[in-house]
Design a protein that fits this description.
Number of helices of chain B: 24
GO cellular component, one term (chain B): plasma membrane
Largest interface: A-B, 46 and 42 residues
Order of helices and strands of chain A: HHHHH
Mean pLDDT of chain A: 91
Oligomer: heterodimer
Shape of chain A: elongated
CATH class of one domain in chain B: Mainly Alpha
Largest sheet of chain A: none
Shape of chain B: globular
Number of strands of chain A: 0
Distance between the termini of chain A: 47 Å
Strand order of the largest sheet of chain B: 1-2
Largest sheet of chain B: 2 strands, antiparallel
Protein name (chain A): Transmembrane protein
Helix content of chain A: over 70%
Mean pLDDT of chain B: 94
CATH topology of one domain in chain B: Four Helix Bundle (Hemerythrin (Met), subunit A)
Subcellular location (chain B): Cell membrane
Strand content of chain B: under 5%
CATH superfamily of one domain in chain B: Cytochrome c oxidase, subunit III, four-helix bundle
Number of helices of chain A: 5
Low-confidence stretches of chain A: none
Number of strands of chain B: 4
Radius of gyration of chain A: 19 Å
Keywords (chain A): Membrane, Transmembrane, Transmembrane helix
CATH architecture of one domain in chain B: Up-down Bundle
Radius of gyration of chain B: 28 Å
Distance between the termini of chain B: 84 Å
Structural class of chain B: mainly alpha
Strand content of chain A: under 5%
Keywords (chain B): Cell membrane, Copper, Electron transport, Heme, Iron, Membrane, Metal-binding, Respiratory chain, Translocase, Transmembrane, Transmembrane helix, Transport
């Protein structure tokens, strides 16, 4: 199963757009959390409990982390395509793919950390104050 | 063995002569200002931005003189307000951002072995706009009319014409004008990085400087439009009394703060990243090795670019927003420290692993990283909301931001100046003076700003013209003043070094033994950029291929000649830099200067409420732009293809998504869509702050109804589909049907634009009464104005079709306006349901 997915992932095209999927997932998650909190707090009042907000933020977080994980998996698979010898900085298809995959993988790690940071901060609140 | 024509020195000399003639700068007292070459325009840009920097620095010295002693009376409160407002605004809008654009304009084509950026006249236009707007804003202080509301211009103080004079208008309109030119530069730089790289330079080989520029230009595209949207609302309030920020009539000053800081925080990184990018070039040169962790730097640049958009509310921690919202922004503010630190560690690691050649530019790099890191540490502190509540609006923040900006922007730029001066002028600056200046500035910055942490914690607020002796910060302030003047003395040494006449002979080419392409620049005055456009197979070709320089110079790569007497550069594909086109570049012209003057007229005349004159200036601007486009863009080449060397023939014209023009349109519209999204954000912002929004129906407050907004949406979407159909028909050579379809699409768009205004008009929405009618009018007018621009484009294409400049083969214009229509359709498909249907749901 994993092997098959791995092989499929290696076939996918990597571009500048795919590279920014993980940070875009962070951005979407951040915006969604912010808007959710802003609207909840404005419409329900500062002292209303935010239990439901916690659940929804949790849902957003899971979704964002799934997207980031998928992107990271594809990047990880693409990074392992065999080809040119190290240090992988030649003008070849393999090295270009490898670079985009490496950058995507690292952006995925950063984005995952940033998503968790943002989500974790919500847990400290029982209401909007 | 076949004989390479490039082996013949006579052939090479003839080619070089032709290239020289084509790329020669116009001469003469007047004509020289019509130049559009990036070398020349970039140099003007740098000098102008540096002059504004010195001016804004002098304002700071006046402030420090005033604050040297308690209860001082050197300048009064009104002048002091103007001084700090203009100091901050100029440093940000007239120095930091333009300086990035200027250096990128100078260096980027050379780094990419392109002969120029893809739209040289746009660069020149941007420069002239910057100069006119900058002189207008900076000059206002000599008339006591400078803006005085702080560089962030918070309403309601600034929207009240009696509280703040004409200064606020000068700020809004003068700087809006410059923001437009910044976006133009961003478009130019993005297309330059993506489409004008040399063959073989795939994404993984791009110089790190180009990566940073790409990221920063994209950030400008998303950061500046919210501010422009805010400016529009702000000026509508000041000029027409539409109450967007007036709480009495349903507005909210906080909306301005949101829009300003959505711009303002990324802005910090917009000015920091391109300066640190210079280090990404300096460090490998003086470590004499490849940069370690290339992908880590890309991660840092892209990661910082994204995260910096999630920080804006940390400037608003004390505005009473819900704690849970503050927490999100606090978390993101801490997260951004990760990528910022990554790049600093990569620089240190590269130096560690290399054989360091100690030099003046490297001294600046080391010193500025130390200062920047101190600023970063206090940044981590103020990112924590409870700490910020204590430090907010105190001198602690002044200390923090100056450490960041001096360490992250000013000193790196000076380091870059010492590094690149030999490239630009063939002369080397004095190492001795450079080091003296460094130590003066390094000591000055610390003596000036370190005590401010304490004066802030002791309770000294920002932006006060004086303080009582009893506060006990007199000694700290005196130290700050001494430090500021020391810093200025260092800057004076640099100015001296720059203007000092030099008699020694020109330096050798590639003086520092660097590995990247910008050092291909030749020592005699050649404007062509590179002798031939090379095939690049590594990140540091000058190090990795000992023969590289000779082959470039002997014209053994692409485009070694200018047979047709035209300025040309190569266009390549985005990811793999496969050559796809020879792009003909526009040469010197008076049009960019004239257009900038006319557009400047619109903004400046509006400031003084001379609406008729401003309208005339606007019409002249439009006429000039149309003339510019008609005579200078999308021209049909005399032959479809051209031989570029090494057995390769490339088309002279391409259209659609592979062409530079298409990308420019796409990128511009991304920025435009961001401004529009900010206005939609405003609509929903008002919805969240009001218990009932839209307000209960009353005369002047009714909504635009459902019918007209829906009709407008349908008509505009029909116009969009018509434009697409016209494009498809044209591509298939069915010219008559295509023209008729385009006429129909134009009429549909026209009807849609009018229907959009009919809703608020026929329902009698009074925008001066309440914020609800005002925001509806703004959204409807935004779409209608875009429809109007779309109609001009449709008519332009029709005219082009009849004039024979738009043919099924040469259909770039039609393809580009379709991109515009996609975005117009998107904005209509969201705006009209929002203003037409949302009130039904909300009630």
């Amino acid at each position: 199963m994993i092997g098959k997915l791995h092989a499929r992932a290696q076939q996918l095209r990597a571009t500048l757009w795919t590279m920014i999927v993980p940070p875009s997932a962070w951005a979407a998650h951040f915006l969604a959390c912010y808007l959710l909190a802003a609207i909840t707090c404005a419409k329900l009042g500062r002292t209303a409990p935010v239990d439901r907000t916690h659940l929804i933020v949790g849902g957003f977080t899971l979704l964002a982390l799934l997207v980031i994980a998928a992107s990271a998996f594809i990047a990880w698979a693409q990074r392992r395509i065999e080809g040119d010898p190290p240090p992988h900085d030649d003008s070849t298809d393999e090295d270009r793919l490898r670079f985009l995959a490496t950058a995507t993988l690292m952006l995925a790690a950063l984005s995952a950390v940033a998503v968790i940071y943002v989500a974790a901060s919500a847990l400290f609140f029982e209401d909007c104050r | 063995m076949s004989v390479d024509p490039q082996d013949d020195p006579a052939v090479r000399r003839a080619q070089a002569d032709r290239l020289s003639a084509v790329w020669a700068s116009p001469k003469g007292l007047f004509l020289r200002w019509t130049d559009t070459n990036n070398n020349r325009v970039g140099a003007w840009y740098v000098i102008t931005a540096f002059a504004f920097f010195l001016f804004a620095g002098a304002l700071a010295l006046l402030m420090r003189a005033q604050l040297a002693m308690p209860d001082n009376d050197l300048v009064g409160p009104s002048t002091f307000n103007q001084l700090f407002t203009l100091h901050g605004s100029m440093m940000m809008f007239l120095f930091a951002v333009p300086m990035f654009e200027a250096t990128a304009m100078l260096l980027l084509p050379q780094l990419l072995a392109a002969r120029d950026l893809p739209f040289p006249r746009l660069s020149a236009f941007g420069y002239w706009s910057f100069l006119i707007g900058g002189v207008f804003v900076a000059g206002s202080i000599f008339f006591g009319a400078a803006p005085d509301g702080g560089w962030f211009m918070y309403p309601p103080l600034t929207t009240e014409p009696e509280q703040s004079g004409i200064g606020a208008d000068i700020w809004m309109l003068g700087l809006s004008f410059i923001e437009v030119s910044s976006i133009a530069a961003a478009v130019e730089l993005i297309v330059g990085v993506l489409k004008c790289r040399p063959p073989g330079m795939r994404l993984n080989l791009m110089p790190l400087y180009a990566w940073y520029i790409l990221v920063v230009a994209v950030m400008i595209l998303f950061a500046f439009p919210p501010l422009i949207a805010g400016d529009i609302l702000f000026e509508l309030e000041r000029l027409l009394d539409w109450p967007f920020f007036d709480a009495a009539r349903g507005g909210d000053p906080l909306l301005w703060q949101h829009l300003f800081w959505i711009f303002g925080h990324p802005e910090v990184y917009i000015v920091f990243l391109p300066s640190i990018a210079i280090f990404a070039m300096v460090v490998p040169t003086f470590a004499q090795r490849h940069m370690l962790g290339y992908a880590w730097i890309v991660l840092a640049a892209v990661g910082t670019g994204f995260l910096s958009f999630g920080l804006w509310v940390h400037h608003m921690f004390t505005t009473g927003l819900p704690g849970i919202s503050l927490a999100f922004f606090s978390a993101a503010s801490e997260a951004v420290a990760i990528p910022t630190a990554v790049q600093i560690f990569v620089f240190i690691a590269t130096l560690w692993a290399g054989r360091v050649v100690w030099s003046t530019p490297l001294l600046y790099a080391a010193g500025s990283l130390a200062i920047f890191t101190l600023g970063g540490l206090t940044g981590v502190m103020v990112a924590i909301a409870p700490f910020d509540w204590q430090a907010h609006d105190s001198y602690f923040v002044v200390a923090h931001l100056h450490y960041v900006l001096i360490g992250g922007t000013v000193l790196p730029l000076i380091g870059g100046l010492y590094y690149y001066w030999p490239l630009l002028t063939r002369r080397k600056l004095s190492d001795r003076l450079g080091k003296i200046a460094f130590w003066l500035m390094f000591a000055g910055a610390n003596i000036a700003f370190f005590p401010m942490h304490f004066s802030g914690l002791l309770g000294m607020p920002r932006r006060v013209y004086s303080y009582p002796e009893a506060l006990g910060v007199g000694g700290l302030n005196l130290a700050s003043t001494i430090g500021a003047y020391l810093f200025a003395a260092g800057m004076a040494v640099i100015v001296l070094d720059l203007v000092w006449p030099r008699s020694h002979p020109p330096v050798v080419r590639n003086l520092w033994n660097a590995g990247t392409l910008e050092w291909l620049a030749e020592t005699d005055d050649t404007n062509w950029g590179v002798r031939s456009v090379p095939i690049v197979l590594s990140r540091y070709p000058l190090w990795d291929d000992p023969d590289f320089l000779r082959k470039v110079d002997e014209g053994r790569f692409y485009l070694p000649d200018a047979e047709e007497g035209k300025r040309e550069t190569l266009v390549t594909s985005v990811i793999d830099a496969v050559p796809i086109q020879v792009l003909r570049l526009a040469g010197p012209s008076i049009i960019p200067l004239a257009t900038a003057v006319a557009l400047g007229g619109v903004f400046i005349l509006t400031t003084f409420h001379l609406y008729l004159a401003a309208t005339i200036s606007g019409i002249v601007t439009l006429a000039l732009i149309l003339f510019w486009l008609w005579t200078g863009t999308g021209l049909q080449p005399e032959k479809p293809e051209k031989h570029v060397g090494l057995g390769l023939s490339l088309p002279l014209y391409i259209s659609g998504s592979r062409s530079a023009g298409w990308w420019a349109m796409f990128i511009t519209m991304m920025g435009d869509a961001t401004a529009w999204a900010s206005l939609v954000f405003g609509y929903f912002f008002y919805w969240t702050i009001h218990p009932v929004f839209p307000p209960a129906a009353a005369p002047g407050l009714a909504g635009p109804g459902v019918f007209w907004p829906m009709a407008a949406m349908a008509l505009i979407l029909a116009g969009w589909i018509g434009t697409i159909a016209a494009r498809e028909l044209y591509a298939r050579g069915v010219v008559l049907a295509a023209r008729l379809t385009l006429v129909a699409a134009t009429l549909l768009s026209l009807a849609g634009g009018l229907a959009s205004l009919a809703g608020p008009w026929l329902h009698g929405l009074d925008p001066a009464r309440h914020v609800y009618p005002a925001i509806v009018w703004v959204l409807a007018s935004w779409v209608s104005a875009h429809v109007a621009a779309g109609i001009i484009m449709q008519l332009y294409c029709l005219a082009g079709s009849f004039a024979g400049r738009l043919t099924p083969q040469y259909d770039g214009d039609l393809r580009n306006i379709t991109v515009y229509q996609h975005f117009l359709a998107l904005s209509a498909a969201i705006t009209f349901p929002v203003i037409g249907l949302f009130p039904e749901v909300a009630r």
